[in-house]
Design a protein that fits this description.
Elements lengths: L1 E3 L2 E6 L5 H4 L8 E6 L12 H10 L4 E4 L11 H16 L4 E4 L10 H11 L4 E3 L9 H11 L3 E4 L10 H11 L4 E4 L8 H8 L3 E4 L2 E5 L21 E5 L1 H14 L1
Parallel strand pairs: 2-3, 2-9, 3-4, 4-5, 5-6, 6-7, 7-8
Antiparallel strand pairs: 1-2, 1-9, 10-11
Helix pairs in contact: 3-4, 7-8
Protein name: Copper homeostasis protein cutC homolog
Function: May play a role in copper homeostasis. Can bind one Cu(1+) per subunit.
Subunit structure: Homotetramer.
Length: 256
C-alpha cells in the first residue's frame, strides 16, 4: 500500500473476501489501488475479471501491475508481447494507470522496452515498480526514469525494507527535486511509517496493510499443497486489514 497527504495506495491480492475487505481500503483514505495477483512473487498481472469487479466497486484510481511472471526483470520477446497485450486489454477495461518495469542484463533501466510499453499505455500514467531496487546504479536509473516520463517510482531504497533503505530513499528524493514522485514501499507498517515519512521527506507511500485470516473451510485435507513448499498455507488467507488502512492513513495525515 502507498499513501500520501491525499491518502493510501493499496496493493491487492485475489482472495474470495477481497471485495469486502480490499475495496473498503478506499473508504478509509486509500488514494489509489495497485491491483495485482500473487503477492508471494512480488505481484503479477491480475486477471481481467478482477479488474472488472474492482472497477464496479471503487471510485479511487486503480493502477494495474504489468508483470507476466515472478523472478527477474529481463524479459524475452514473447514476454514483452504478453505485457503489451495486457496493457492494451487492461486499458480498454478501465485501468486508471499501469505499474511496470524492465531492466537490461547489466542492471540498467531498459529504456527502449519501457518506451514501448509506455507508448502502449498512453495516455495512462505510469509507475516504475520495484525493479528499481535491482538496478546497478540508482542515481543513474532515476535520471533515466525521469527522462522516460514516469510519474513515480516505487522503491525500498534498494534494500530489504524501506526502513533499511531510508538513507537512499532520502537521497533519491533530494536528487529528484520534484521531477518524479519517489514512493517508499516494502515492509512499511504502523510501527515505522512515521519514521520513514519524516526521515525521507516522501509525500506518498506504498504498503499492503494485510493481515492473515483463517479459512472458513471445515473439511481440510492437510496432506495436499496446491503450490510449492514456499507458498501460502492452503487454509490461510491474506486480506487487507481495514483497521491498518485507517491507522496508516491517520499517521500519514498527522505526519505530512
Amino acid at each position: 500500500m502507498s499513501t500520501s497527504g491525499e491518502g493510501v495506495q493499496q496493493c491487492c491480492r485475489k482472495t474470495r473476501s477481497w471485495v469486502t475487505q480490499r475495496l473498503s481500503a478506499g473508504w478509509f483514505g486509500a488514494g489509489r489501488l495497485e491491483l495485482c495477483s500473487s503477492l508471494l512473487e512480488g505481484g503479477l498481472t491480475p486477471s481481467l475479471g478482477l479488474l472488472q469487479v474492482v472497477k464496479q466497486y471503487v471510485k479511487i484510481p486503480v493502477y494495474v501491475m504489468i508483470r507476466p511472471r515472478g523472478g527477474d526483470f529481463l524479459y524475452s520477446d514473447q514476454e514483452v508481447e504478453v505485457m503489451r497485450k495486457d496493457i492494451e486489454v487492461m486499458k480498454s477495461q478501465g485501468a486508471d494507470g499501469v505499474v511496470l518495469g524492465a531492466l537490461t542484463e547489466d542492471g540498467r533501466v531498459d529504456a527502449e522496452l519501457c518506451m514501448e510499453l509506455m507508448a502502449a499505455a498512453r495516455p495512462l500514467p505510469t509507475t516504475f515498480h520495484r525493479a528499481f531496487d535491482m538496478v546497478h546504479d540508482p542515481a543513474v536509473a532515476l535520471e533515466a526514469l525521469i527522462s522516460l516520463g514516469f510519474q513515480r517510482v516505487l522503491t525500498s531504497g534498494c534494500d530489504s525494507t524501506s526502513l533499511e533503505g531510508l538513507p537512499l530513499i532520502k537521497r533519491l528524493i533530494d536528487q529528484a527535486k520534484g521531477r518524479i514522485i519517489i514512493m517508499p514501499g516494502g515492509g512499511i507498517t504502523e510501527r515505522n511509517l512515521q519514521r520513514i515519512l519524516e526521515g525521507s521527506g516522501a509525500q506518498e507511500f506504498h504498503c499492503s496493510a494485510r493481515s492473515s485470516r483463517d479459512s472458513a473451510m471445515k473439511f481440510r485435507n492437510t496432506c495436499v499443497m496446491m503450490g510449492a513448499s514456499f507458498s501460502a498455507p492452503e487454509y490461510g488467507l491474506k486480506v487487507a486489514d481495514v483497521g491498518k488502512v485507517r491507522t496508516l492513513n491517520a499517521i500519514a495525515r498527522n505526519t505530512l
